[in-house]
Predict the 3D structure of the following.
Amino acid sequence: LAKTTQPISMDSYEGQEVNITCSHNNIATNDYITWYQQFPSQGPRFIIQGYKTKVTNEVASLFIPADRKSSTLSLPRVSLSDTAVYYCLVGVSNYQLIWGAGTKLIIKP
Amino acid sequence: GAGVSQSPSNKVTEKGKDVELRCDPISGHTALYWYRQSLGQGLEFLIYFQGNSAPDKSGLPSDRFSAERTGGSVSTLTIQRTQQEDSAVYLCASSFVSRGLNTEAFFGQGTRLTVV
């Protein structure tokens, strides 16, 4: 089961683009990369998922290099409401995902 | 319902008592997951249901923990003889399963269990 490494915390300011990078050196061929967001006192919420190259949705973009040993979640023009913990997960099946402590993102005005 | 519903939202119990936590998944979701989250930590996997069967119970921390799912819908997580170390937020999630691949998991708000 692949494990991930991501920064414990990050700060940024409203209106900036935020990039959170995750390392997953042991990613397997069939593994997908998934990011979740969690606000205090709430369950995690799915943000984006990808296998290779670039994926974009209305919330974020996910950049995955050719070797797939890392990935970068990009949040464009963040606001105060983006303050949350962001989890990077790698695996095939949801029940096999290993949840680390995530990255605590703090957005300042 | 529109989302995953968990009850109760908060539970305070005395050490040694049994507790039951309930999860009502999104209608039609065949997969259901239970997790535990301690303060400031990531999620700890407990058990996974596909329909009414539990292919993976490997995360249950001890034989005091058990879970069942009936009718491919509602699930209950039971903790017997609760201990203080059981205090945590218990999260339930559900999803479709497509050939075993990850699909978006939808989480409930969790049950905050405090054992005193």
Remarks:
- The mean pLDDT of chain A is 94.
